[in-house]
Design goal:
(3R)-hydroxyacyl-[acyl-carrier-protein] dehydratase activity, Thiol Ester Dehydrase, Chain A, six-stranded antiparallel β-sheet, HotDog_dom_sf
């Protein structure tokens, strides 16, 4: 179980990751939730004729795993996601295993804001998403307790 991090615990250079293999089910679920049924994502016959020659995952599905890292690992619970930039650099296909990675690059002590470099890589170590996020990490008044997660979720530098 990982201890919940405070703003003071977090240092520039700290990193955390989350990995997932993208399934056809994930793509259909995302399409259903968002209403984005672009045939590039869900129609195999259509997608076979595109430059990708296969169905690809929604860019925001891939990018959404950055939120998983931010909300569950670094900075973790009690973080407020303020902004995110995305640049989609390569397609993600069904069966690809992606790794969302965040790294603390700046802290603004007066507002308790944390800026993070955000990237997603595929199993071939190709960057598929590049961006930055800004989160606010303030201690909230609530009973503290353990959270689910890996004990080594955050790498200290």
């Amino acid at each position: 179980m990982q201890k919940e991090l405070t703003y003071e615990d977090i240092q520039i250079g700290d990193r955390a990751v989350f990995s997932k293999t993208i399934s056809e089910f994930d793509i259909y679920q995302f399409a259903g939730i968002t209403g984005d049924f672009n045939p590039m994502h869900i129609d195999e016959e259509f997608a076979d004729k595109t430059i990708f020659q296969d169905r690809i995952a929604h860019g925001l599905l891939t990018g959404s795993f950055i939120s998983t890292v931010l909300g569950m690992k670094l900075p973790g619970p009690n973080s407020i996601y303020l902004s995110q930039s995305f640049r989609f650099t390569a397609p993600v296909k069904i069966g690809d295993t992606i790794k969302a990675e965040v790294e603390v690059i700046e802290k603004q002590d007066d507002r308790k804001y944390i800026k993070l470099k955000t990237r997603v890589w595929n199993q071939r170590r190709e960057m598929v998403v590049d961006g930055e996020a800004m989160v606010m990490k303030k201690q909230l008044d609530r009973q503290k307790g353990p959270i689910d997660g890996e004990t080594s979720a955050v790498d200290k530098h």
